[in-house]
Amino acid sequence: MPVIRFSKIIAAFCLSFAAAYSPVSLAGSASGVIINLTFMSDGSVLFSISGTRNDTPSCASATNRFAISSTTALGKTQLAGLLTAYTTGTPIGILGGGSCYDYYDSESIIYFYTLD
Question: From the DSSP assignment, how many helices (H) and strands (E) are in the chain?
Fold first, then answer.
């Protein structure tokens, strides 16, 4: 009987740990107009949003800024969309990835969409 109780405790601990530290629970989100683009020498593209931001991960000290990498196929596709939204002034919604993979102080994004 104690083995079953102990295994339930371990299972509960694992589930709570996974829920607390899953990337989705740490992901930031924002919506607004792109107000700044910065092109870094390593291929990272940083951009800021004029609107509100929620759930900033601890690595993102630049709190209203996100990052993508223009060195990957996905990043190039995202960059094309971002540049279009920037030049037309179209507001966007963003879901962050919960990490600063593309640039050390700016949250990397999973996806964004236009709010038109």
Answer: 3, 7
